[in-house]
Each structure stands twice: as structure tokens, then as C-alpha cells.
Amino acid sequence: MTVFKKSLLTLGITAFAFSAVLLIFSMVFMNSLYYEINAIGLKKTAATLFTAIGEDRIIQIFEEHSDSEILIQGLDLPVKTLGEYRLTLIAPSGYVLWDSHILDRLVNHINREEITSALQGKEASARRNSISLGEKLIYHALPVYSRLSGDNGEEDNKVIGVFRVSVSVPGFGMRVSPVILPFFIYICLLTIIAFFAIYAYSRSLADSVGRIVKIVQSSAPLLSGPEAEELVAPEFRSLEKSLRAMTAELNMRFEQAKAEGTRLQAILNGMSEAVFAMDSALKLHLVNPRARELFNLGDRDIKLMSLLEATRSTELEDIARKALAADTSLDMELAFRTGAEQYFQVYAAKLADASSVVLVLQDITRLVKLERIRKDFVANVSHELRTPIQLVKGFSETLFDTVTDDGDKKQIIHFIEIIQKNAGIMENLTNDLLALADLENNGVNLRDTEELFIDQLINEAVSSAEPQAKRKNIEIITDCPENLKANLYGSFIIQAIINLIDNGIKYSQPDSKIWVKAVQENDELLLEVRDKGIGIPKEHIERIFERFYRVDRARSREAGGTGLGLSIVRHIALLHKGKAEVESRTGDGSVFRIRIPLHLQQRRHCDP
After folding, report:
1. Is 57 exposed, middle or buried (0-12, 13-18, 19+ CB in 10 A)?
2. CA distances, 442 to each of 321, 341, 366, 373, 605 (Å)
3. Over the stretch 522-577, which tens digit does the pLDDT of each residue have?
4. Handedness of CA 188, 189, 193, 196 (dihedral sign)
């Protein structure tokens, strides 16, 4: 049974049920209205009869016979004029004094509702079956008041009896029975006509929708076919055109998606990185060949596996869960064994639907090994150079102290000065290389941080740089609260401040000043070194913290710089999970800042 036939049957049953309910409620309402109208008519009739018989006559009857319990016979009342109406006179005791239709003794009427109300001085109507006549009657009772005067001369309005009129009213069903059958037939015919009208309309809708359903089911084959030749509602004709256009668009998009899927699969198959895609429960639904090879998955069905089952790595599982919980992508380095020890750069990102996550593992084992070789080389070379450099420097100093005052002394002194200067440069370079190696290998060499007073660290750094500052008559001014302290690697912070002060001394004019300041700013420790030197051109600021980068190579070498001082400062800032900043304008000096979080935790490694 189609939806239209179901709707038709439901609508027909609903229409018939509604008609039946409407008919029943109409009959109930008309029945109530019928008896209400008859009650109002009887009330007017009772008043008319009361007036026609005469109030005085009725009062007289009650005053003469109010104590009688015997039905009065031979009253001179216009009985013949009553017609179908029944007249009853009831005493206050409830006994019937006279009845126009019954000559026998009647039961006491004191409990009749209309009698009770009338004896209380209120007109009342009632409808019930008469015990004496065996018919359903409508009653209306009027109170009859006494006209006798009381002791004070006023009329005594005492109820001395009840004047009641009743009439037999046929049931509402008997009155309307002649028209019920035609009315019911009319309703049935109307329902049948409506049923067939709805059926015809629903068939037209079913045919139109049936064609549209065929278009959707058959999709492409019907797109080029003819449009409906039969009569179709304009709305469905428009819907058919829209569906044709939509189906064509969907087919095109499907082909595009299919081509994109093929390209994506080719890209994934050709990637050297391992790729895992999974849902929010970390159940895998895509793995590329590199990932299968890396974790020895072979041809196993990965859709039945979780990430942990496929990789046996709790670290990867933790990264995937963090990526699902975070609003940004994650990028970190992991080391684990898949046979030999390997290192991977892991990229984790939540997809747009927020219900899946993708992991990309890039093998960086070779890069890590090369970096280790480089660090070992720097450390070894630095250690190998230290001893000969110290010897050259030591002998040149001895030679300088023992020369005589003959004619070649000046040239010898000049050569010795050159030896000393270059030996100093080599020593500085070696020390800086050692410092960098120490920073980059801090996972092995570093101890825990210590809570230190910043002013003491600044004072120690200033004391180390003062001899060089005095040669150019440069004043170093410090500004640091005495109670300011933080968890730091003290020796590295001293080294960073010395490097910044040394940088300021080298590029400042004689008789100038350098300001060293430390302050707590929000949740950070701010270390600042300001000078009034030559400044840094704008185009060099972004690269100033790179290794061996010099703005003016000739001047830097003349000043004895190695090109590693600011790079060491940056590494020390990173070691403390902070950062190094610079502000400078040409000819207006420079401001170097180190920002360090006050809630510092032990850091495992320092990013170069």
C-alpha cells in the first residue's frame, strides 16, 4: 500500500469519524436546547394560567384547604381550557390538594425539586418521569403567597401553597426521527463523494511523484530522457526539472570525488611518511603502505584494529587523544623502536568534523644522527683547540714581557699583539662553541633549576664585564628589586647578561651608558639590557639571533666578536622556556630583552 493510499484511507476514516462525532454532538446539543426551549415555554404558560384562573381564587383555595390531606373534588376551575397541560395545587406540607388529570390520592410531593424551591419562594422547573402518569413531563412551579395582614398591619408574604403546571414533552429523538435517516444518508453520500475526490487527486499526485521517484532511482539514464507527457501539476514539473539538474550536479560531483579519491590514494601510497586516519574512538579507517611497512601490518584488515593495536605505542595513542581534545594541531618528536631505534616527527590534527583525527609520522632518524655528529664535532673541535690556543696565548704574553728596548722591539711587539688578539678571538670562539654545545646537550649535562635572587646574578655579570667597560669609560647602571627571585639555571643567565652587556660595550661610543634592568611583568621575568650604541638596521633584526650572523662583519671582527653571543642568548632563553627579543633603530641604540616564565618546569631538551 503506497503512502497516498494510506493517506487516502486515513483521511476517509477521519472524515467519516468526524462526521459521526459532529452528528452526535449536534444531537446532544439540540436535545439540550429542545428541553430548554420547552421549559421556557412552560414557564410562560404557568404565568398565563395563574393569571387566567385568578390569584385571589388560588389564594382562597389554599387558605381554605391548606390543612387538608384529602384530594379536593369539584373545584370550579377551567379544567377544559387546560388542554394538554396538567395543573396541580400542592399544600406546604407536600400533599396534593387538587390535580387536573388525577382524581385519586397522590403521594406527598415535598421532596420534588421544583416543590422544594417554590416553598422557599423561588420559581423552579424540572424534567422527569411522572410516577402517576408514567410519562416524561416538564414541571414548572410557582409559589403562592398569603394576603393576610400581620400584627403590625403589613401584608404577610408567607408561602401557603404551590401552583404547578406540567406538560408531556415527546423525546427529542422521536421529534427528529423522521429526518435522521435522510440526514445520515446525506452525510454518507457527502463522505463518499469527498473520498472519491481525494482519491482522484491523490492518484494524480502519486503518478507525478512516481515519475520523480523513477528519475531519482534511475538517476543518469533518465536525465537525457523526455519530460513527462501526461498532465502533471506545475509544482511537480518544476520539481522534476530541479531533480534533473540536482542529479546531474551530484553525478558530476561524484565523479570529481572519485577522481580526488584516486589522487589522494596515489599521494598516500607515494608518501615516505606514515599516515594513520582514525575516528574519535581511535579505530583505524585509513593506513597508507608506509605505515603498514613501518609497523609490520602486512595485509591485515586495519578496520578491525585500534591505533594501539596497530602500533603498540602508548605515546602515539596519547598524542591522538590530545589532538582530539585540543583546538589546534600538535607537532612533536618521538623516539621508539620498530626493530632499531628510530626518531619521528609526529604531526597530529583533528579533522573538520571534529570526530576523527589523522597522524603523520616523518622519519627523522637520519637528521637526528647527523645533528648528533655535528654536535660531537663542535664539542671535539672545541676541546682540541683549547690547549694550543692557551699555549699560543701564554707564550705570546711571556714573549711580550721579556722583549728588550732595541730597534726591532716595535715590530716584535706588533707581531705579539697580533698573536694575542687572534688567540683571544680563538679563545672566545672556542668558549662560545663550548657554550652552545653545552646548551644543546643539556638533557645530559643540566642539573635542576635553583631559586635564585636576580640582583645577585646581575651584579656578578656586571662585575665580569666591568673591566672591558672601563677601557671605554662606559658606565653600567643596574635596576633590580632586591626580593625578585626565580627558578633558573644561574650560570647560563649570568652568561646571557654578560653577552648582552659585552655586545653593548662593543657597539657603543666611549663615555656612554648601559642600563641593565630586571622586573616581574605579569607572570614573566623580564631581563633587559639597553644601550645607546650604533643600533641595528631594520632589515637585520629578524636574523640577529642566528649563529655567526653579523650586521657588519668587518666591524664585528675588529671588536673581537665571534657571531655566537646573541645565538647563545637565544638558546639560554629557550632553555628556560622563554624567548629573546630586540628593539633597535640605526643610530639610536638597542634594547635586548629576555622573557622567562616564572613557573618554570624542568625542560628535557632545548630546541636549536
Report:
1. exposed
2. 30, 21, 21, 16, 7
3. 889 999 999 988 888 888 888 788 766 666 654 555 555 666 778 888 888 888 88
4. positive
